[in-house]
């Protein structure tokens, strides 16, 4: 797993060994960023269920200003910290070792709007996609925000999170990426 493009292109990232996390493959990551970017002029990314932090680090490498990563697994948070340090993004990344359901409350107090929301929960936990709706309900997403959900290809997500409509759902082997925009 590596950073695919941008100012940190080629840097190798670590991931947690075992089945506690499921890193997004480079192929899928490249496809996602080609669709939503591929490069950015600032903005804020939020990654729910951070795993290795690879999606946020890719976004930063491509021009995002700041990222908030939520991950409850302590060992995964250590991997994220190592990856952040390797990329020299300590000032731009805010790691929260907490359940992703706490993201709404945490971000509500920050006064910042999210431009890119990455939602990649354990596939069996379909209810976690409701966090995206909660973020919409709390007006935490910018008008031009993009919601990116990774899920099992068999899982059919909702057609919309408030005004954010499903624009595209691509399948890559056993996984699917659903992208929502206004």
Query: Between the first and last Cα atoms, what is the distance in angstroms?
Result: 31 Å
- Number of DSSP strand runs: 8
The number of helical runs is 5
Mean of all residue-level pLDDT scores: 93
Reported for the largest beta sheet, the result is: 8 strands, mixed
Query: What structural category do the secondary elements indicate?
Result: alpha/beta
Tertiary shape: globular
Order of secondary-structure elements: HEHEHEHEHEEEE
Strand order of the largest sheet: 3-2-1-4-5-8-7-6
- Gyration radius (Cα, Å) is 15 Å
| Unreliable residue stretches | none
Question: Which bin fits the share of residues in helices?
Answer: 25-40%
Portion in strands: 25-35%
């Amino acid at each position: 797993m590596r950073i695919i493009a941008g100012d940190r292109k080629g840097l190798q990232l670590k991931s947690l060994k075992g089945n506690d996390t499921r890193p997004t493959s480079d192929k899928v990551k490249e496809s996602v960023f080609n669709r939503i970017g591929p490069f950015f002029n600032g903005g804020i990314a939020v990654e729910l269920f951070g795993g290795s932090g690879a999606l946020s680090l890719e976004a930063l490498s491509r021009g995002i200003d700041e990222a908030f990563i939520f991950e409850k697994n302590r060992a995964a948070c250590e991997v994220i910290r190592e990856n952040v340090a390797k990329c020299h993004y300590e000032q731009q990344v805010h790691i929260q070792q907490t359940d992703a359901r706490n993201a709404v409350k945490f971000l509500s107090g920050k006064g910042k709007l999210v431009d890119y929301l990455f939602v990649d929960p354990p596939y069996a936990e379909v209810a976690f996609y409701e966090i995206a709706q909660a973020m919409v309900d709390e007006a935490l997403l910018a008008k031009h925000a993009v919601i990116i959900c990774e899920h099992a290809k068999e899982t059919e997500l909702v057609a919309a999170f408030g005004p954010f409509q499903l624009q595209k759902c691509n399948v890559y082997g056993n996984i699917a990426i659903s992208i929502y925009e206004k």
